[in-house]
Amino acid sequence: MTIATSTKSRTHLVHVTFLTILHAGALLALVPSFFSWKAVGVCLFLHWVTGGLGITLGYHRLVTHRSFQTPKWLEYFLVLCGTLACQGGPIEWVGMHRMHHLYSDKELDPHDSNKGFWWSHMGWMMYQSPLQPEVPRFTKDIGDDPVYQFFQNNLVWLQVALGLLLLALGGMPFVVWGVFVRLILVWHCTWFVNSATHKFGYRTYDAGDNSTNCWWVALVTYGEGWHNNHHAFQYSARHGLKWWEIDMTWMTIQLLQALGLATNVKLADKKQ
To answer: What angle do CA 206, 210, 215 make, to 5 degrees?
Structure first.
């Protein structure tokens, strides 16, 4: 297989436009009439629902790495939550992340940290990825699932539906904080896993790349900041491997396990 290695061949105008509009929309939070503490509460709650349950638990640990199993209805719910984070549809997200692990910090890594903090944080999304045509090959387990296809193809409309619901419940303050501000916060928190945890922190294991364990990224991503641990044991449901490496997502998995909703939970073999 031959893949072109030019990472800056063409600007991805859709991504650039989308990123610009959402960041500009978040600035509306500076308008006093759009502020309320209830709206801030909605923002924080949806940050956890879409970033914690959706991206971290659903897209990442459950679907991408299959570090545990859940009933299909719960898997679909978590994937819906992830879709509402607007980081791309689940098929594309999972495919690109699996390729990140395969090529971590090498030329074909979509967000190779050797190309600089800005590139790995968000610059890479502004260009057409040469790996995009390879996504179907890396997502054969979910690519033909009609529910995943629906989420993949209706990402924007699902966000619009959420926005209309928030508008009905709390007016424009709920929309500004529950959609625009929340999306920007979730985006940058997640992107710190690609950038900051390949630059700042400590390395417990030789994972063959630049991945690090970074406590403050773990704090804002529900445990994803223990990234060196994750790259060393990518199929482990638990990322915080030391007692003091707090991993909120692992605690959620333990709760689901106690309720009988998480099975076949995989853990790191630290003897490797």
So the answer is: 90
Q: What is the pLDDT of residue 129?
A: 87
CB burial readout 18-27, b (16+ within 10 A) else e? ebeebeebbe
- Give residue 269's region: left, alpha or beta (phi > 0; psi -120 to 50): beta
Burial degree of 101 (CB within 10 A; 0-12, 13-18, 19+) = middle
Distances (CA, A) of 190 to 8, 124, 245: 22, 14, 18
Q: Is the pLDDT of residue 213 over 80?
A: yes
Q: Are 226 and 238 in contact (CB under 8 A)?
A: no
Q: Is 50 exposed, middle or buried (0-12, 13-18, 19+ CB in 10 A)?
A: buried
Domain layout of the chain by residue ranges = 13-258
- Give the pair of three-digit tokens for residue 26: 């978040």
Q: What's the mean pLDDT in 57-63? A: 98
- Mean pLDDT over 112-138 rounds to 94
Task: Give me the pLDDT at residue 270, please.
Answer: 63
Alpha-carbon span 103 to 46, nearest angstrom: 32
32 CB neighbour count, 10 Å cutoff: 6
Instruction: Report pLDDT for 4.
Output: 46
Mean pLDDT computed over every residue of the chain? 95
> How does DSSP classify residue 30?
G
What is the spatial distance between Cα 126 and Cα 112, in angstroms, rounded to a whole number? 14
- The predicted pLDDT at position 10 comes to 87
The Cα–Cα gap between 235 and 118 comes to 28
